[in-house]
Amino acid sequence: MRTYVLRATTIAALTLLAAGSALAQSNNNPTPDQAGKEEVKAKAADGHATVAAPLQNGALTANGAPQTDMVPAKYSAKNDADDKIPVWGYAFKDMTDAQRGAIRRSVLGNGPAPTRGTDDLHARVGVELPVTANLKPLPGEVTDQMPRMRAYRYTTASDKVLLVDPVMRAVVVVLP
After folding, report:
1. What domains, with CATH codes, occur in the chain?
2. 77-105, pLDDT tens digit by residue?
3. 42 contacts 52 by C-beta, under 8 angstroms
């Protein structure tokens, strides 16, 4: 019984609070003669009103707006290129050519690529390698320079080095 009274009192108090808030807001409505009037706008030196679009080509244009990479791909070549990267390879989109070359040199040395690790059909980002693919850990010189590479393995396909996520056995980077 006591719980019922407490619950009913709480509901009644919240209802009164909501009704009072609605009445307070309704007093701020414009009268019919005020409806449709425009706000005062900043004027340029020539006296014409200036209105800056809040978005231009999908980017915020307001003063102090943060720079963002959330611009639609149709306005940003960089974002368009990023959208075409498979999900598996996105973590390595910022890998430089020098880093790619260092990995390739450390794995293959200066000689020709090994004849067979896996076939060329699997030399694409996002492809799952068969269980028979021989995955090897990256050399210490690579993992010392790039610690995030410790979690990955590699194999070869013709003259390419494939970096692989060992858990999913998915190719994440192809180094030609």
Report:
1. 45-84 (no CATH), 86-175 (3.10.450)
2. 888 888 887 776 777 888 899 999 999 99
3. no
The H helix count followed by the E strand count for the chain is 4, 6
Structure tokens at 19: 């009704």
- Alpha-carbon distances of 141 from 52, 107, 148, rounded to whole Å: 53, 10, 13
Which residue is associated with the tokens 């390739």? 104
Which H or E element spans position 172?
Answer: strand 170-175
From the number of C-beta atoms within 10 Å of its C-beta (0-12, 13-18, 19+), residue 95 rates as: middle
Task: Measure the CA–CA gap between 174 and 7, rounded to whole angstroms.
Answer: 64
Residue 59: φ, ψ to 5°: -110, 145
The SS3 of residue 169 is: coil
Decide: pTM greater than 0.70: no
The rounded radius of gyration (Å) of the Cα atoms in the chain is 31
Distance CA 6, CA 11 (A): 9
Cα distance between residue 24 and residue 140, in whole Å: 70
